[in-house]
Amino acid sequence: MPELPEVETVRSGLQALLPGRIVSSVTHDNPKSFPNAPADVQQFLVGASVVLVARRAKVLLIELSSKYSLVIHLKMTGQLVFRSGNERFGAGHPNESLIGELPDKSTRVTLAFEDGSQLFFNDQRKFGWVRLMPTAEVVNLDFFKKVGPEPLGADFTAKVLQERALRRKNSNIKAVLLDQTVLAGIGNIYADESLWGAKIHPTTLVKDLSTKQFEVLYEELVCVLKLAIEKGGSTDKNYVNAEGKRGSYMDFARVFRREGQACPRCGSTIIKTRVAGRGTHTCPVCQKA
DNA sequence: CACTTGACCTGTCCGC
DNA sequence: TGCGGACAGGTCAAGT
To answer: Which helix (H) or strand (E) holds A22?
Structure first.
């Protein structure tokens, strides 16, 4: 579920916590979660300090002083939770974290730092991964070569959205919003939310959308993403920030996971269907097929 | 080539 | 209460 706002929230949280800390050890329980460990781990990870935490699309980049970077994709259930080592859990020690003592049974990779703090990569479904590679080679990953523009970047406009979407003119607009090569960072939640905002039905073919509709959709995308970042992302089930705490955008969602409830714009009952293989939430009155 | 569907996983929820 | 199956949804491989 982590989409751009969730990954950005994790990034900003880690950027406030990690830079300057020196890695002292790395453990992992599942080769799939950390495919190239331990080949370069001892030489380029242990003993290196964190320089910067960055994000591109839904991918996190932890840059190290060794000129290597950890590249991390949370996929659906991945979590990155930092612990200073002084937190208390259980009776008599209230803690806002949704996550209890770590490591737990979902912990796939643990980074320990010389000051005793730790960073845990938890991933219930094992779809996510951590890779270690030279920072200079990150841009050469297939994903980074193909991925589209950042929707909150200065060079992203309604015109750019329309032009790039038209590369898939015979696809429905929801599938195209989810296509990371068209634009970066949109997933199921913010696709549904922005299409509702723009009053566009998700099955509408790209070639049938007007320039005006692309302008409205662009505005809604930007607006929804900014609000979601402000709210710390959406916690439906698994997502937590770098401190293990939930995001609150779901309290502000207009259609996502609100089937059976009233559309906040017209009062009609929100329905759930299936579009592009995903659960899809729409107002049948505001969003005409 | 354009586009859609299935696989990857595990936990949860629903109906019987 | 147990059990099978549907579902969750990011990305890539395989299929149409």
So the answer is: none
